[in-house]
Amino acid sequence: MKGKWLIILCAAAAVARQPILFPHNRHVALGLACLDCHSTADTRAAASLPSVRKCMLCHEKLATEKPGVQRVREYAARKTEIPWERVYGFEPAALVKFRHAPHYRAKIDCTTCHGDVAKATVAERAVKHTMGTCLDCHRQRNATEDCASCHY
Ligand code: HEC
Ligand code: HEC
Ligand code: HEC
Ligand code: HEC
Ligand code: HEC
Predict the structure, then answer these.
(1) Residue 78, domain member (yes or no)
(2) Whose Cα sits closest to atom 13 in ligand 5?
């Protein structure tokens, strides 16, 4: 039993264990843009995750025979958001203050920091973010190296 839990914990470190396997690739293939679902990545600090209400704009009628979609509909019927597990992020102790908006304005593509999500199924941590990777680009691009810009 102990061994089994250890394996589950290790797997969770590499890939978040999501309540529903959401396929990015199929949804982007339908013509949806990243900002259709992560609607504040251009204007705010957080990119945001879509509400289950957004999913229901289509899944009220579409692909309702699929088990994954039936799970989505169950959450919607209970008026409960899907408890997605976070993929990217920093230890709270590092007190990092990341903001999407200035990067969007600087025309840095989502793929630079998240990999080719359009081809991915469930989101994985495809790109590692460390203070070094932030600073490498900031030096190249003449962006801030001030501690207080990136830390609370
Ligand atoms: C139909 C809505 C939808 C579209 C379109 C979409 N996403 Fe997502 N995205 C989600 C959902 C739902 C999750 C949470 C599930 C997961 O992490 O797999 C997510 C998770 C993510 C994550 C991980 C978030 C975290 O927890 O750190 C990233 C990064 C991401 N998406 C980037 C993108 C990019 C880049 C695009 C465009 C190529 C895109 N998404 C298009 C719905 C969408
Ligand atoms: C623009 C319409 C649209 C939106 C919005 C949308 N979907 Fe879908 N989704 C589809 C269609 C169409 C399919 C079937 C696609 C296919 O089989 O290639 C699908 C398939 C799925 C599947 C089944 C994959 C499988 O084959 O097992 C899941 C799970 C899913 N969507 C979850 C979500 C979630 C969660 C959201 C909200 C974050 C969402 N969808 C938003 C249109 C949409
Ligand atoms: C310069 C690198 C960078 C770029 C460019 C970038 N992201 Fe992120 N993204 C991050 C980091 C770092 C995090 C984790 C932030 C945190 O936890 O404070 C993150 C988190 C996320 C999350 C998780 C939810 C959230 O609000 O934190 C989503 C979804 C996401 N990004 C989507 C996108 C999309 C879509 C784009 C393109 C429009 C994009 N990102 C561009 C670095 C980037
Ligand atoms: C691929 C290049 C690149 C990467 C990677 C990157 N940045 Fe940036 N960052 C920029 C650019 C370019 C700007 C915009 C500079 C400007 O507006 O003049 C910026 C702006 C910012 C700003 C706003 C600064 C201000 O005071 O307006 C913060 C905060 C920031 N980045 C934090 C981070 C953090 C934290 C990371 C790592 C998780 C990171 N960045 C990774 C290129 C990058
Ligand atoms: C461009 C953004 C950026 C700048 C500028 C920056 N940092 Fe960081 N720093 C980060 C990120 C992102 C992390 C988290 C890295 C991780 O989780 O691997 C971090 C982590 C740290 C940590 C480790 C915290 C911990 O205990 O985990 C310390 C200490 C730190 N930074 C201090 C500084 C100091 C001092 C400065 C100014 C000389 C500075 N940082 C400037 C982005 C930045």
Answers:
(1) no
(2) 131
Q: Which domain holds residue 113?
A: 21-49+84-150
In a domain, 58, yes or no: no
Torsion angle in degrees (nearest 10) through CA of 109, 115, 116, 121: -130
What's the pLDDT band for 122 if we cut at 50, 70, 90? confident
**How many domains does one find in the chain?**
1
- Give 97 Cα–ligand 1 centroid separation in angstroms: 20
Average pLDDT over residues 126-138: 97
Chain segment 55-82, per-residue pLDDT in tens = 999 999 999 999 999 999 999 999 999 9
Residue 75 domain flag: no
143-to-29, 149, 150 alpha-carbon distances in Å: 34, 10, 11
Residue 55 domain flag: no
pTM of the entire predicted model: 0.95
Grouping H, G, I as helix, E, B as strand and the rest as coil, residue 96 is strand
